[in-house]
Amino acid sequence: xxxxxxxxxxxxxxxxxxxxxxxxxxxxxxxxxxxxxxxxxxxxxxxxxxxxxxxxxxxxxxxxxxxxxxxxxxxxxxxxxxxxxxxxxxxxxxxxxxxxxxxxxxxxxxxxxxxxxxxxxxxxxxxxxxxxxxxxxxxxxxxxxxxxxxxxxxxxxxxxxxxxxxxxxxxxxxxxxxxxxxxxxxxxxxxxxxxxxxxxxxxxxxxxxxxxxxxxxxxxxxxxxxxxxxxxxxxxxxxxxxxxxxxxxxxxxxxxxxxxxxxxxxxxxxxxxxxxxxxxxxxxxxxxxxxxxxxxxxxxxxxxxxxxxxxxxxxxxxxxxxxxxxx
Length: 327
Known about the structure:
The chain is of the alpha+beta class. It has helices at residues 2-40, 49-66, 75-95, 101-125, 132-150, 172-180, 194-199, 299-326; strands at residues 157-168, 206-210, 217-221, 227-236, 240-246, 267-280, 283-295. It has two domains: 2-150, no CATH class; 157-326, START domain (Alpha-D-Glucose-1,6-Bisphosphate, Chain A, domain 4, 2-Layer Sandwich), CATH 3.30.530.20.
């Protein structure tokens, strides 16, 4: 009985030790790369193809290889590596690195996708590469090499606009004063949305317009720590009001997520505005738009999150205007 159990237990013990060792090495490597990027490129190091795509693929490839040195594991075992790795990354990011929920949400699909690619490639080349030292060295060196190459390249910049509309049972002249500013927003006003009620993006508390016409400034308060300005650049009474965002006095975005700042080197909210379109004597279509540019290796992907977060903020503001105007 004893001799029959040894062949079964030994591989399991060996697999457990290899998995633990590989996870430990990957943990040290990943955290070290994180702090390296934060040190050499503090403003945008984490918003790079190396960190978003290459590194998770390399880490998952390394772990997948180390837990299957004999090349006998099934595809499902390889596919589970990115899921467990992503879970560990989320826990470390939230509780140790103090990253915000927004960053974790945005990074998770990218890390999972690239991790699966790394695991699949490892399984594909598993029978070709048999030297674990050579494989590990090459895989873990790839992000460092990619970082060097990426530092010589310029990331693309793309412009986007997010637009939401709502029909309000009021005339343009009744709605116009609300577009100038609402100084006393109550917690129960607006509408429920994912970004503000689940993720925790702040809600507006007040907006006050100082001056009249083009050149006037509106001060917006979005919580205890967040305040920014909007300089009026378009003014058609009862028709259109537009502004450019000024974030020089806003120091509070890091309380929600330190990578959420709307004036960062890779994400910048530029202009916005309301448009009033009369539908009939008692109804008006109110449209709110926000323009921004992003400069990342994955602009199209990032714009999907911009559509979600900015769209939620706009929908909430429009619901606030509608509620006030129809009362």
